[in-house]
Amino acid sequence: MALLRTIIKNSTQAKLLAAAPVKSWQPAVTASTFGMKSIEANRTKPLTNENFEDKNKRLQRPISPHLTVYKFQSNMALSITHRFTGLAQNGFIYGLALGAMTLPASFPYYLGLLEAAHIPLVVLAVKVLIAFPFSYHLVNGIRHLVWDTGYSLTIKGVESTGYIVLAAAIALALYLTSL
Amino acid sequence: MDSITSKAVVLSRQYMQLRNLATVAAAKPAVAPRIKKFAVYRWNPDISGDKPHLQTYEVDLNTCGPMVLDALIKIKSEIDPTLTFRRSCREGICGSCAMNIGGCNSLACISKIDTNLEKPVKIHPLPHMYVVKDLVPDMSNFYAQYKSIQPWLQRKDESKMGQKQYLQSVEDRQKLDGLYECILCACCSTSCPSYWWNSDKYLGPAVLMQAYRWMIDSRDEATKDRLDRLRDPFSVFRCHTIMNCTKACPKGLNPGKAIAEIKKLLSGFTKKEEPKLNPIG
After folding, report:
1. Which among A21, A79, A175, B150 is least surrounded, fewest beta carbons within 10 Å?
2. Backbone dihedral angles phi then psi of residue B43, each to the nearest 5 degrees
3. How far is CA A121 from CA A115, A125, A177, in A?
């Protein structure tokens, strides 16, 4: 072991290293050779304080088309229907409340007027129009709750539950209309 | 001398005749050109008063590669050199050529051209983004949002960082599958109607999936801080589970599910599991 150490100690390389210790590499030519200021290596601040919105408004860039070009798919359609049926129910309640406050007679009177018109199709249509938002929003709401637990959040899962929801909503609406 | 020259002439003539025969025999029968129309969104900021419009180009599919990017490059090199778009790897891994093709967001280099010659292919830039020129959107906001979620490993004690590998069990590593492969092409975020209407405050599926990737990494210890940074009505909760993101992803990833998992963590419905293997074990 000691022999090995002496051999290494006396080797040419060791002698050279002892004579002239290795300095860290310095470039021969730097920015100052050309009379330039040295550049900060880590500049993470942006060059200006202008934010994204202002810059794009200043350059008057258009916004790329969205609703007019995006392909209308089943998952989008069901999602927007959920929002619209929710708003529709909201509208019905508003209408009911406003009517109750402003109109002189009571609700059964107006219902009687509608039925006395003897157009059964109109009554049926009105019933379906009120029942469908309720049933669709209810069934799709259950689908949203299932999604919130994390289940069936795949392309196939969304598609298949979408069909189930549509079928169940129509069935429930028809049942409620028949009552 | 004369005989040699005449011999040379005869030989060269025979050689030329042989060559002509070979060329005629090898000549393919003329194939009818399959012309496909490409309607591409154009807007030039350097032309004052220019309005965004669709410009139609005709490409013979027999002389073009099968992907939409091949057609765009062919149009740029042979028909209109001013057509501007981003591209790099041509193999679906860099995310540069993300654009809206036929109504759906995808990468042009891995989208096959629909060979039905009756219908033109409509090509638009990624939806609801500021357009720099033609098919190039301004991605700065998207990148700033990615930076804001601090996409790097954070531990409580980082004094010995880099000295040893942080250990992770196979099971914990499998939790990252389907999350780390994101190439940040922005196809998902720009397909989300919520991101269209709220791109300044809602982070979008791509960034949220990466936030989740760092949250459930067993080696990361800053989960609580990561979640607290998202506790406002806009950053996560503008997601209404429309699921356009998962449909659009060209790499087959599922950002919608990742966002649902973030919501579960934020609400306290689930908690991050303890790492199966101690990272500094």
Report:
1. A21
2. -155, 125
3. 10, 6, 12
**How far B64 CA sits from the closest chain A CA (Å)?**
26
Which residues does chain B have with pLDDT short of 50? none
Tokens coding A89: 């129910």
Q: How far is B143 from chain A (nearest CA, A)?
A: 11
For A19-38, the pLDDT digits (tens) are: 555 555 666 666 566 665 55
Beta carbon pairs, A and B, within 8 Å: 95
> What residues have CB less than 8 Å from A169, skipping those under 6 apart?
A132, A135, A136, A138, A139, A140
Mark residue B128 as left, alpha or beta (left: phi above 0; alpha: psi -120 to 50; beta: remaining).
left
CA separation for the pair B250, B92 (Å, rounded): 8
pLDDT given for residue B245 in this prediction: 96
What is the distance between the alpha carbons of residues B97 and B58, in angstroms, rounded to a whole number?
A: 21
Kindly list the distances between the CA atom of residue B141 and the CA atoms of A15, A51, A104, B112, in Å, as whole numbers in the listed order: 59, 9, 56, 30
The minimum CA-CA distance between B223 and chain A, rounded to whole Å, is 20
Q: Which residue has the tokens 């979008």?
A: B204
For chain B, list the strands marked E by DSSP.
35-42, 53-60, 98-101, 104-107, 121-124, 131-133, 136-137
Q: Which two tokens stand for residue A57?
A: 């408004």
Are B128 and A64 within 8 A, CB to CB?
A: yes
What are the chain A neighbours of B41 within 8 Å (beta carbons)?
64-65
CA dihedral A15, A16, A20, A22 (to 10 degrees): -110
